[in-house]
Amino acid sequence: MLFIxxxxxxxxxxNVLYFDYRNTFNYGYMKYNFFxxxxxxxxxxxxxxxxxxxxxxxxxxxxxxxxxxxxATLYLYNPTNKELPKYNxxxxxx
Length: 94
Description:
single chain; alpha+beta; Arc Repressor Mutant, subunit A; globular
């Protein structure tokens, strides 16, 4: 079931608000399946085409960065173009 444009715009806004609320940027690069499940939970949509449409619209609006890692494609939710922190593996206790 495809939604009309106003409902789609509302769904896009709702998804962005939820991703911001959950601080999804801090999860790092994740597979599409992770974001698909979040969109399914947020919008209560079970149609995979509609979920892909929402994800592609968010990607086109530069809310995500794409990274290839071997055969896998990973996505980072990054609406403000922040840099990921570099971890050197050393833990400092204060």
